[in-house]
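note to self — DONT lose this again. spent like an hour looking for the file last time. sequence + predicted structure for the chain T wanted, 156 res
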Amino acid sequence: MKTIELQINGSTHEVSIEADETLLQVLRNRLDLTGTKKGCDSGGCGCCSVQVDGKVVYSCMMYAAGAAGKAITTIEGLGGGGTALDPLQQAFIDAGAVQCGYCTCGMIMNASELLATTKNPGEDQIRHAIAGNLCRCTGYTKIVDAIKLAAARTGG
């Protein structure tokens, strides 16, 4: 076991980890941040997407030790981590972009990175940004609509 410090959603967490533990395992099993989902566990579905230093990564593919000293944002940290929803989270609700909800957190994390750099993305840009996330329920149309809605609401 090795002890590391992780900066997650603006807070420091000291965690004892095994050398081969992934960031996903630490988030869910040690820190009880269960918004980040385990899907395929091989970097193919995007359910486990989080932001590390502002860039989306698959947390199932990153060793926790490699995240030490970096700013990690999970779905729980969007919107300031308080009780208010982030505009993207609210837009997904308002546009009906959630069905089973399993892919939603990963979709929102990717959309958040997109909207941080592109204020008014077109449909092609949105679809490219979420291309690494699989959804088996929605057909993506409402997800794209939700991201457009969030962009419009946040000044896009």
